[in-house]
Amino acid sequence: MADFQGSTRLCVKNVPKHVTETRLKEHFSKKGDVTDCKILKTSDGRSRQMAFLGFKTEAQAKDAMKYFSKTYLDTSKLFVERATAIGAEDAPRAWSKHTKGSSAYELKHGKPAVTAPASWKKPAPLVIKADAKNAPNPQKTRLAPEDEDPALREFLEVMQPRQKTR
């Protein structure tokens, strides 16, 4: 379990779309005093299925995280984790195309992507010999599997589409 370092806030993911802040607050108050609850919403008011909860003490937040993590609210499995501050070193790596600092954001906005270190060597270019071009390809000269197996050939004939069987 992650070290809380004095944090009393939790991040709850996969919250059902129809759940209100009061209902979520009541649900989590079974394990402590919930001071605040905020469900994230899109600009048009739809739920982003993610919420932040604040508890009165660090111990209550730890108990709630342990108790509610990977449990169900209605038919949605909740994922509860410690909320981290924006820009914190222990925060997960950004991945969204809307988040500055993510590789997807850099690609979308024309910033240079992360390049390979100079110590990595490029593979040697493929050289094709002139004699190899004229040699027959062993894979092409080998019989197809349906030519080798009469049972497979019969099966393929039976399974042809109706237009080819008439």
Helices and strands, with pairings:
Layout: E1 9-13, H1 21-28, E2 34-41, E3 47-55, H2 58-68, E4 72-73, E5 76-77, E6 79-82, H3 103-108, H4 130-134, H5 138-141, H6 145-148, H7 150-158, H8 162-165
Antiparallel strand pairs: 1-3, 1-6, 2-3, 4-5
Written description of the protein model:
- This protein is of the alpha+beta class and 166 residues long.
- The chain contains eight helices and six strands, in the order βαββαβββαααααα.
- A four-stranded antiparallel beta sheet has the order 2-3-1-6, with helices on one face. The protein has a two-stranded antiparallel ribbon with strand order 4-5.
- It is extended and about 80 Å long.
H/E order of the elements?
A: EHEEHEEEHHHHHH
Low-confidence stretches: none
Helicity, in percent? 25-40%
Note the overall shape. Answer: extended
Strand order within the widest sheet? 2-3-1-6
Instruction: Compute the average pLDDT.
Output: 80
The total count of strands amounts to 6
By secondary-structure content and strand pairing, the structural class works out as alpha+beta
N-C termini distance? 67 Å
Question: With helices defined by DSSP (H or I, 4 residues minimum), what is the helix count?
Answer: 8
Query: Beta-sheet strand percentage?
Result: 15-25%
The major beta sheet can be summarized as:
4 strands, antiparallel
CA radius of gyration is 29 Å
